Amino acid sequence: MSTEPPQISDLGRAVQDVGQKLELLVSDEIALAKTELAEKVSKLIKGAVFGIVAGVFALACSASSPPASSSAARHRRPRWRSRRAS
Fold first, then answer.
1. DSSP string covering the chain, please?
2. pTM of the prediction?
């Protein structure tokens, strides 16, 4: 009996090679998915911040100017002043 490990056949080497390449491919795909997810989250956060800033700006603009109807009412003369003195 010999104590040497048995020789791996060509088919065995091919299976090992395919297994190693498959493992490498899966790890590369996982890394790519992580990168794509990070990019999507970054875009989502930027869009949310932009929306919040736009909302705050719109609120600030609407709070600083009175509505058009009240502005027109202030510039209109009261009826009792518009009558001619007879």
1. ---SPPPPPHHHHHHHHHHHHHHHHHHHHHHHHHHHHHHHHHHHHHHHHHHHHHHHHHHHHHHHS--HHHHHHHHSPPHHHHSPP-
2. 0.52
Radius of gyration over alpha carbons of the chain, in Å? 38
Distance CA 15, CA 49 (A): 51
What is the rounded distance in angstroms from the CA atom of residue 17 to the CA atom of residue 11? 10
> How many domains are there within the chain?
1
**How much is the pLDDT for 61?**
85
Q: Give domain status of residue 69, yes or no.
A: no
Structural domain boundaries enclosing 35: 10-62
Give, in degrees to the nearest 5, the angle at Cα 63 between 57 and 65: 105
